[in-house]
């Protein structure tokens, strides 16, 4: 049986396995800051959505 997600953001970690920080400590794979990466598992749903939005914004600027 397939385990269902508790909610839409419960495991939506943006990591794509291409982990490398640029000179501003932003991952070139997922566009999270080092702090966001380290704190991901302790973030609330709202905070995760905010991080995902920030990642999209950073990605669009590249």
From TrEMBL:
Q: Which InterPro entries match?
A: DUF1289
- What Pfam families does its record include? DUF1289
Q: What is this protein called?
A: DUF1289 domain-containing protein
Species assigned in the record: Vibrio paucivorans
């Amino acid at each position: 049986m397939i385990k269902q997600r508790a909610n839409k953001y419960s495991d939506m970690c943006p990591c794509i396995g291409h982990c490398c920080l640029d000179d501003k400590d932003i991952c070139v794979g997922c566009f999270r800051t080092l702090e966001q990466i380290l704190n991901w598992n302790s973030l609330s749903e709202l905070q995760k959505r905010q991080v995902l939005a920030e990642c999209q914004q950073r990605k669009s600027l590249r």
